[in-house]
Design goal:
The structure is a homodimer of 462-residue chains. Chain A contains 16 helices and 18 strands. By secondary structure, chain A is an alpha+beta fold. In chain A, the strands form four sheets. Chain A has a seven-stranded antiparallel sheet with strand order 15-12-14-13-17-18-16, with helices on both faces. In chain A, strands 5-6-10-8-9 form a five-stranded antiparallel sheet. Chains A, B: Its cofactor is FAD.
């Protein structure tokens, strides 16, 4: 450890009580690891902060000694955003986990960053309200992390992603300002949309200490159906027909043949032989009959492409069964092969069949199984490269690189909802070009002139 | 004119054909005027550009000679965004008015900036698709202007504002880069959300030459109703009950007593005596019965607060009648008093009655009539200060200043959809604070280090 870091740590010790300053290497390892497959890069210390002012104090110390600061919450990210690549101070927001306000009158919630997304959802639903973004990790991930990554989820098809629900933010900049950005009103266009810029900035521009979120009235009824197809192409055709037919379901989730085979292991449904793909669809609204009528209309539309019957869940237990087919996919795929690397490309909707075919072809070329599932309604696909032994990793990385480039070549993106982090930083320029990345670096410098906040994330290191 | 400008103009003359370079003072005046009440500030020249490359050439000339560049399209803005405060070169996008693509498969449109919003809407509707943002000026305003201002409109309540529909942009920066920002896929989180940052940046960060827009399936049925109340407070209570009751209509437009009196002059409806406010509500969807059922449920909810019957339009002609009551308000208010200054504050929904009361009180104090109407569902209110003689203008400006400060004091914003421009730049800091404005200026400098693009807009001049 350098002298600068020692000096910074001494200042932290003077500024924070012992029980909120983590120095134990065993505990620190957990602060430098997330749900990506990138291992642990522990920080030199972690501070369990309780206020924006404390974060400002940490930035002051870090600026004096030029040590990195890394914001950390649930560590459920998939792109390595919390890894302390160059050591430094982890700012753990875990204690800032209060729901500050739920206003049914303004349809607004104010929360601290470490509120768990699922907890907020349950709480607002008790008020008859609805917070739509539903990342798969919602029982673990936090609003702060969702804001950092601009998290999506199946319901994004109808309701949009996190960005659409963040009205305002309080953020601490590396330069020490504590800024209130955005608004509490639903609309507002004064000045630049700094709120939208911070959403999805992966903790590289500022640390969010409070979010003002837009809520909706809760749709009272939901209908869920599962449809099986002979092939991904048939399923993709059905997706297009539904959307062009003027139906906007809240979810349209696709499973390819490998995923379906894995799902079949625990799913309560017996899929017909030759099943090559499935769609999980869901409609919602306030009138039970209307919602049911819509799922039936949707079922009629896709029936012609389907293989066998459309399964419409008739009650809450059946709904849960249908969702479990989707939700435990990740676990079930690991039963096929113990290791996997999951990507989250997104492509224009018309390119879904080709994207899935290309991912499969990449696997075929390299002797790896690739399973694709995801949010077909908005073209966001999780391509999972399955493997058995760590030694296969170089080949797996080659497959991932090919899949990411294929997504870009099809007019899509390297990441639909997981973020760039460390995992995909070497592919950013392939998608955006050198000039756009250079502009992003200039923006980063406008927020963080010393480069102390979360260095090495999003952009390749120079 | 300075020597630098002369030199710049000589370079423009060499670079552009005579018929696309406007120098005539009479014609130039039109390029320096919009629908704000700020008069004309003509540029020294206007270039009718046809490509991004031409805009880059203009930026190169302007950079060499340090002369301002001002993007101009329909000139339907309400905040003075096109005024050439310091002369310079107007980049008129009027010839870049092609719809490049409508893809029903990807639910995407690609357009040039001068496509008129209403023209795009009609065209996508012919494909069974829907572009929701509907600023009142939609028969005149352009997508480029909508992107610059992040335009809203009545349907924003259910469908959101322009930002929610811009997937990607091509923009020319003052430094000469032609950047493709964003994506064609519905989702995508790679790098910073530069697309969202450009939307609403009022033509101060770059000039947009192409936009990729998200489309929706077109809702096939719409139901419209008009409800009269004894007071604004009763109407506001009804708004809250509708939204909390789990109904999200596509519009919830409010008219106060003065607006109603003005509307009564041409409206086909006879409002009951003592009518103090009205709500115009609209629901939409794909099933005619469902849509009608929803408006009836909504009508039942508000009936208890209403004065007299709820008028539900029974056919397209009646729908038009209801909308004309709202749409010709601006004209009808001018029949009460020939002059008016219209503001577009937004407040948290619960503060609507207080905002309207405060605006009225400001008028009372200064001896001016204030009429308020607007998008009550999202708290975006148009407060119109009416007056008779230009000499009253200082008093009117005082009233506007008080109304803008009241909106901020109630937790709202000085502008819900019109933008800051020149009109409200002196109030930006009152809303956002000095530190946020300083950060915005740093971002501006990251895009436009020489400060040549649209100077004097959004930020007070120093």
């Amino acid at each position: 450890m350098t002298a600068a870091r020692d000096a910074a740590l001494r200042e932290l010790e003077a500024a924070f009580p012992r029980e909120r300053l983590v120095r134990d290497p065993g505990r620190l390892e957990a602060y430098g690891r997330d749900e990506s497959d990138l291992g642990a890069r522990p920080p030199d210390a972690a501070v369990l902060v309780e206020s924006a002012e404390e974060i400002r104090a940490i930035f002051a110390i870090a600026s004096r000694h030029r040590v990195p600061v890394i914001p950390v919450a649930a560590r459920s990210g998939k792109s390595g955003g919390v890894l302390a690549l160059h050591g430094g101070i982890a700012v753990s927001l875990e204690r800032m986990n209060r729901i500050l306000e739920i206003s049914p009158e303004d349809l607004v919630a104010r929360v601290q960053p470490a509120v768990v997304t699922g907890v907020l959802q349950a709480e607002v639903e008790r008020h008859g309200l609805f917070y739509p973004p539903d990342p798969n990790s919602l029982e673990m991930c936090t609003i702060g992390g969702n804001v950092a990554e601009n998290a999506g989820g199946p319901r994004a098809l109808k309701y949009g992603v996190t960005r659409e629900y963040v009205l305002g933010l309080t953020a601490v900049l590396p330069t020490g300002e504590i800024l209130r950005l955005g608004k509490r009103s639903i609309k507002g266009v004064a000045g630049y949309d700094l709120t939208a810029l911070l959403v999805g900035s992966e903790g590289t521009l500022g640390i969010v200490t409070e979010a003002t979120l837009k809520l909706l009235p809760r749709p009272r009824h939901v209908a869920t159906a599962l449809v099986v197809f002979a092939s991904v192409a048939e399923a993709a055709r059905a997706v297009n027909e539904v959307l062009q037919g003027g139906i906007l379901p809240r979810c349209l989730e696709l499973l390819d043949d490998v995923s379906l085979a894995a799902a079949a292991k625990t799913s309560p449904y017996r899929f017909p032989p030759g099943a090559g793909a499935a769609l999980l669809v869901e409609t919602d609204g306030n009138d039970e009959e209307q919602v049911f009528a819509e799922i039936v209309r949707l079922a009629e539309k896709v029936q012609v492409h389907a293989q066998g019957d459309v399964i419409v869940a008739q009650n809450e237990a059946q709904r849960r069964d249908v969702w479990e087919t989707r939700r435990y996919l990740s676990v079930n795929l690991k039963a096929l092969h113990p290791l996997k690397l999951s990507e989250d490309v997104a492509v224009p909707r018309s390119r879904i069949p080709e994207m899935i075919a290309r991912a499969k072809a990449v696997g075929g070329r390299l002797g790896l199984t690739v399973a694709t599932y995801g949010h077909a309604g908005d073209g966001n696909l999780h391509c999972n490269v399955l493997f058995d032994r760590p030694e296969e990793r170089p080949k797996v990385d080659e497959a991932v690189a090919a899949i990411l480039r294929d997504a870009v070549d099809l007019g899509g993106t390297i990441t639909g909802e997981h973020g760039v982090g460390v995992a995909k930083r070497d592919f950013l320029e392939y998608e955006q070009g050198a000039e756009v990345v250079a502009l992003e670096r200039r923006l980063k410098a406008a927020f963080d002139p010393l480069g102390i906040l979360n260095p090495g994330k999003i952009f390749p290191e120079r």
